[in-house]
Amino acid sequence: GCGVCVDRCPVHAIDFPERECGEWYVSDTRHGPLVHARLEPGGENSGRLVGIVREAARKLAADRGLDLVLTDGPPGIGCAVISSMTGASKVLVVTEPTPSGSHDMLRVLDLARHFGIPAAVCVNHGDLNGEMAARIEEEARAAGASVAGRVRHDRSVTQAQLRGLSAVEAAPGPLADDIRAVWKAVMP
């Protein structure tokens, strides 16, 4: 979606014709503004769409005097991930204690290092495989990232979503403590 392949193809075999693949919106939530997009069925989550949403969020934050913009990026390391990291002051990689989680985390950490962005790692469902979670934390440190913590598996997260609440609101106690600890580790 970034267009580099279109520009570099010597025989002009690649083209990205303009087409509408979704719309972006600004919603007011009880926690502040949310800039988000809705893809059309089969629409690709391109770096371009992420860039539009990211820039709209930055403009909105500047207009409202807000000093923090959180950008939620998709899994992987494709154009959409690169676009979500553009201009970031820090990257939080949320992974799970699985071999594929480890592999993907290391690729994102390489990307963050390439762009010179400090990174931290959070192991979600970190209590489901303690040995693998510890291995991921070691790999993160070896890759130059800090470890923000682990968030335990808790079925109340689904109930929180169904009730329109955050996990911290719906599940006070150990889960909320995990999330607050990660937040504290990531924020200056």
Task: Please give a structural write-up.
There is one protein chain. The protein is of the alpha/beta class and 188 residues long. Helices cover 45% and strands 18% of the residues. It has helices at 4-8, 47-64, 79-85, 99-115, 130-142, 156-163, 167-170, 174-186; strands at residues 22-29, 32-39, 91-95, 119-124, 146-151. The strands form two sheets. It has a three-stranded parallel β-sheet. It has a two-stranded antiparallel sheet with strand order 1-2. Helix 5 links the parallel strand 4 and strand 5. Helix 4 (99-115) packs parallel to helix 5 (130-142). The chain is globular, with a radius of gyration of 18 Å. The model has no long low-confidence stretch (mean pLDDT 92).
State mean pLDDT (0 to 100 scale).
92
State the shape: globular
Portion in beta strands: 15-25%
Helical percentage: 40-55%
Computed CA radius of gyration, to the nearest angstrom: 18 Å
List the strand order in the largest sheet: 3-4-5
Straight-line N-to-C gap: 33 Å
Give the uncertain stretches in residue-range form.
none
Can you count the helices? 8
Order of helices and strands: HEEHHEHEHEHHH
Number of beta strands: 5
Structural class: alpha/beta
Let me know the largest β-sheet. 3 strands, parallel
